[in-house]
Amino acid sequence: MVGRTPAHIVAIKPLVDGVVSDFEVTEQMLKYFINKVHHEGFTLFPRPRVIIGIPYGVTEVERRAVEEAAINAGAREVYLIEEPVAAAIGARLPIQEAAGSMIVDIGGGTTEVAVISLGGIVASRSLRIAGDEMNEDIKDYARENLNLMLGDRTAEEIKIEIGSAIPLKDKLQAPLRGRDLVTGLPKEIIIDDEQVRKAMSKSVMQIVSAIKTTIEETPPELVADIMTKGIVLCGGGALLRGFDRLIASAAENKVYIADDPLTCVVRGTGVVLEDLDNLKGVLLPTEFEK
């Protein structure tokens, strides 16, 4: 729908870079989801408990905006959890043990890198560089090198279809369709994985650099644990071809991709919500907690 709407319809992204960008639209979105979940029940005014994942290191103002949006949308209680912790729980890592677990969550707006022990974050990095930024890289590359104007959806499809972090054994190609910046007319160009890799290389290397920096800040005992257990990748960015091998090579460590990496964070929040009494220690303090 984005980029395909008529003049009287505006497609808005309520969340940008992992935080609320439009308060009222976020509130309406949450209200819609809450009502959709309760639609088949007999509750007239649903007042659920809500747990929301937020990027590590967000400001007090951003945190407050999320809480208020959830309360205004009809939540009875609001709990906040840091996304890397939720991702680690969703990936079934033993975060409450006295041992280091390293999680890298490459989402749409943010990349969260964290070393977790005893239910808390020991060392972490939160980057506003992730899947969306890679899409922008592809759009910039097409505009500067191919004189082609692309939409967000097209750039994402190309990334999924032929994107990679390291050179591939078999070369991949895909048609790139957009508007020619010279003539203003539609144009199709065949692009290969090497060009897409070159376009995304800056963002990819910044994520790799953040992982290395986080390991450097980690206490030696926990580094030993990470060497034994490896680094776990989750989020949509983990599905980029060869990304796990690139990180393994750069960090000199084993790297695993979590089962169903796209839903790790949401599964983690679900686990916490179902077992609040035992996992309350991993939540952040909130103003609306009862």
TrEMBL record:
Cellular component terms (Gene Ontology): cytoplasm
Q: Please name the Pfam families in this protein's record.
A: MreB_Mbl
Q: Where, by residue number, does ATP bind?
A: 108-110, 156-159, 236-239
UniProt keywords, alphabetically: ATP-binding, Cell shape, Cytoplasm, Nucleotide-binding
Single annotated GO MF: ATP binding
Give the matching Gene3D superfamilies: 3.30.420.40
- What subcellular locations does the record give? Cytoplasm
Q: For this entry, list what GO says about its biological process.
A: cell morphogenesis; regulation of cell shape
User: Which InterPro entries does the annotation name?
Assistant: ATPase_NBD, MreB, MreB_MamK-like
Residues crossing the lipid bilayer are none
PANTHER family from the UniProt entry: CELL SHAPE-DETERMINING PROTEIN MREB (PTHR42749)
As for what it does, the entry says:
Forms membrane-associated dynamic filaments that are essential for cell shape determination. Acts by regulating cell wall synthesis and cell elongation, and thus cell shape. A feedback loop between cell geometry and MreB localization may maintain elongated cell shape by targeting cell wall growth to regions of negative cell wall curvature.
Q: Which family does it belong to?
A: Belongs to the FtsA/MreB family.
Supply the NCBIfam families for this chain: mreB (TIGR00904), PRK13927.1 (NF010539)
Subunit structure comment from the entry:
Forms polymers.
Q: What is this protein called?
A: Cell shape-determining protein MreB
Task: List the gene name.
Answer: mreB
